Amino acid sequence: MRVGRPLFHDTVLAVAVAAASVALFVLYDPEQLRAQGVLVDGMRAPDALGVTLVLLACAPVAVRRRWPLGAMCAALVPETLMTGLGYGTGLAGVAGLVLLYSVASYRGLAMALCGLTLSVVLYVVSAVAGPVAALRWSDHLVVAVVLVAVWGAGRSLRLRRAYLEELKDRAARLERAHAADTRAARAEERSRIARELHDVVAHHVTVMTVQASAARRVLGSDPELANEALSAIEHTGRMALTEMRDIVGVLRTDARAELGPQPGMRDLPALVEQMREAGLETLLRVAGEPGPVPAGVDLAAYRLVQEGLTNSLRHAGAGASAVVTVRHEPHELDVRVEDDGRGGLLSGEPGHGLVGIRERVALYGGVLSIGPRSGGGFEVRARFPLKDGQ
What we know:
alpha+beta; Heat Shock Protein 90
């Protein structure tokens, strides 16, 4: 339908141009030109042959968009015959102007210049050798100006069309780039939320599992101790729900006012105390003068300690102990979690938690080392670079 519609429009235009050209051809007969003071010696009066040639010159207008230069060349044949037979119309006709405009509008500069050259040359030939040779020089100048103006209008339209296409293409590229950036941002945000949820759930569920196991073992012999363990489970569960609500609340636009601050190294004493209640003897050591730490590094350091202690609680075994060391240096923050257990992580691949910690540390340009200690046990250590002491 898109191909047929321009062809239909051009066919209608060809019919209109033919009607106008025939009318001009019939009206401008030798008698009228003589009345206007123009010498018309040798000029033939309009007849059936002349009308047929005019119609043949107008017919190529129907394919002016598909083959503009070919249509112009096809129209030149009857135009030349009319000049040679003495009818004297030349390329100043309406069909010639329409085809010249089409060549300039739908083809490149080289073809457009070729079309303009053909138009000018043929008119010059008809002006020198044809019946219109007696026209005044001002009349020839007007025809030349009209030809150049029609050609310039076609070129201007082509350049404007190309400019609009470039704008559309640029807008499409920008839209695709924006969509790609949006997808990347969403994927990054999903990954971040997944890491946060894993760290929260893995830590609290591990603590609750250990405390539930302890409560089950002493339920019959020491109900008071079992009650303390159950209370600790309840408290840990509430903490897990609160943290998960804060994380998931980021996805809700109406929950921003309810969000609390993210945990950081200021919460390490409470985390260590929680691990002690769960049965892992834990010690916190802080060296150096604490200074301002970027929020992202603060959260990453906290999650590293949380994941390290969770793995120690899960894999170190009964009677194991852990030490958390935080060392503040002028240009570096050193965080280390060590335990003296049997290092159960060596029996398999690191879990998603340690993979997430590796991504967190790499995000802030830190260096992470995970592995067994030389004297036994397991160690998780990260060193975060700080710029200008921050």
